[in-house]
Amino acid sequence: AYIKWFAPFPLAPDQHHGLYKLLRSLHGGEKIASIVPLANIVRSVHLILNFGAVVPQGWTSDTVLDNCNTF
Questions:
Q1: What's the pLDDT score for residue 1?
Q2: Please, what sign has the CA dihedral across residues 42, 20, 67, 58?
Q3: Rounded CA gap, 12 and 21, in Å?
Q4: Alpha carbon of 36 to those of 17, 21, 46, 71: distances in Å?
């Protein structure tokens, strides 16, 4: 499986909605990704986008996970 990595959870959830804000892991400004054997995957995760007040018009269902930086 192709995995895009995120930074560890913050110490506390957001005070307004109780969810943890995730940021992509970067190295030298580049997103970090790995190839991982399926046998090593324990569970999946559902991400909720944090795009601000308005969704950018150029985002599509095919590109939104690559375009959004926080979840």
A1: 93
A2: positive
A3: 9
A4: 32, 24, 18, 22
Q: Which residues have C-beta within 8 Å of that of residue 25, sequence separation ≥ 6?
A: 5, 6, 7, 31, 32
14: Cα within 13 Å, side-chain hemisphere: 9
The amino acid at 50: N
- Read off the pLDDT of each residue in 34-53 and give the average, rounded to a whole number: 85
| 68, two tokens | 């959004």
Q: Is the separation of the CB atoms in 1 and 30 below 8 Å?
A: no
**Encoded tokens for 56:** 């950018």
Report the half-sphere exposure of 66 (CA within 13 A, side-chain side): 8
